[in-house]
Design a protein that fits this description.
The protein is of the alpha/beta class. The chain has a single domain, classed as P-loop containing nucleotide triphosphate hydrolases (Rossmann fold, 3-Layer(aba) Sandwich). It is built from 10 helices and 9 strands. The protein has a 9-stranded mixed sheet, with helices on both faces. The longest helix is centred in the last third of the chain and has 29 residues.
């Protein structure tokens, strides 16, 4: 599979982004959302974490998004998927009890019951995502061209995606089972939905990504066609070393380390780059998928760092193709 064979990320209806904690999946979500809106798409960006962070990427003084959300940019609406709010929405629609529904859901006993019930948060959040994907304007067009979900980290993210199937198997019939089937149909539709794993070029994140992709494809049947490798080095360290070797070693530079010290630092950086490139190739071979590089941006991803100027790197990134090896992906670990 080459870069040309990959569909544009903005051609999907729903992109679910997950990865090991700390790999930068939220920054990838924001890059994709910004790039898609610049490409003319109407984008919904949703986060599932109880602690909001997305607004800080777009605003100097970020205000809470809340469940209803708000526009962060033209054609970019962001919100936080709160399971309690989503449950209240669902019950209101199903029972039509209005204010009475809110009173019941706020009861401490009911809240304790919810905390003890497994899977309801995941199902109700996925149901809200399905509802938003289906949402249309007065003339019948989809309100959002692309929905991007900053999903839970790897382990919880797989449980998150598997809940609709479990509910269907447990209930078999009734409105909840029927609604779960609609959600499952969206999650498993490769024309509409893509699972986008994010990793960094390091041993543990790569191994966890391999496990994620294996389970997503095997147990869950969710479509995955690429991996984002975040914080990839530029590979220019060796070039800098070559330039430094042309400078006399006894040259004294004011306010700078000595030439030998700089040489030592660059050699250390070159070793780290070598490891990163090896890990990038390893995750591609383990998962039998192409990887999309995302470079390290100086200054991080605060609103003042100018990261948005480079948002299109998520769409126009260098892609490391699958190895020419024809080995079965299941055999790569052996």
């Amino acid at each position: 599979m080459t870069k040309e064979a990959l569909r544009d990320l903005t051609d999907f209806r729903l992109v679910i982004v997950t990865g090991k904690g700390g790999t930068g999946k939220t920054t990838v979500c924001c890059r994709l959302a910004e790039a898609a809106r610049r490409a003319g798409k109407h984008v919904l960006l949703a986060e599932t974490s109880p602690i909001e962070s997305i607004a800080a990427y777009f605003e100097k003084a970020p205000r809470p998004l809340g469940y209803k959300g708000r526009d962060l940019r033209k054609n970019l609406h962001a919100l936080r998927l709160d399971p309690h709010e989503a449950l209240a929405d669902y019950v209101r629609v199903q029972l039509g009890l209005g204010v009475l529904t809110d009173r019941i859901l706020r009861l401490e006993t009911f809240q304790q019951l919810l905390e003890a019930a497994p899977g309801w948060r995941e199902l109700i959040i996925l149901g809200k995502i399905w509802h938003l994907e289906q949402k249309r304007d007065p003339v019948g067009a989809h309100v959002y061209d692309l929905l991007i979900v900053d999903a839970p980290s790897t382990g919880h993210g797989l449980t998150f995606l598997d809940v609709p199937r479990v509910v269907q198997q447990a209930l078999r019939s009734g409105p909840l089972a029927r609604h779960a089937s609609w959600v499952e149909a969206l999650i498993h539709d490769p024309e509409r939905t893509l699972l986008l794993p994010v990793t960094t070029p390091e041993d543990l994140p790569v191994q966890e990504t391999h496990e994620l992709v294996s389970r997503a494809r095997g147990d869950l049947g969710v479509f995955v066609d690429r991996i984002v490798v975040n914080r990839m080095p530029t590979g220019r360290t060796c070039e800098a070393l070559g330039i430094l070797e042309k400078i006399p070693g006894d040259l004294t530079l004011e306010c700078l380390p000595s030439i030998p010290e700089m040489h030592s630092m660059l050699e250390h950086s070159a070793k780290r780059d070598h490891i990163a490139f090896a890990e990038r190739e390893r995750v591609s071979n383990l998962c039998h998928l192409p990887v999309v590089d995302q470079p390290v941006f100086p200054g991080g991803f605060g609103v003042d760092t100018g990261w948005a100027k480079h948002a299109e790197t998520i769409l126009n990134a260098a892609t490391w193709p699958i190895s020419d090896s024809t080995a079965d992906p299941a055999e790569v670990d052996r």
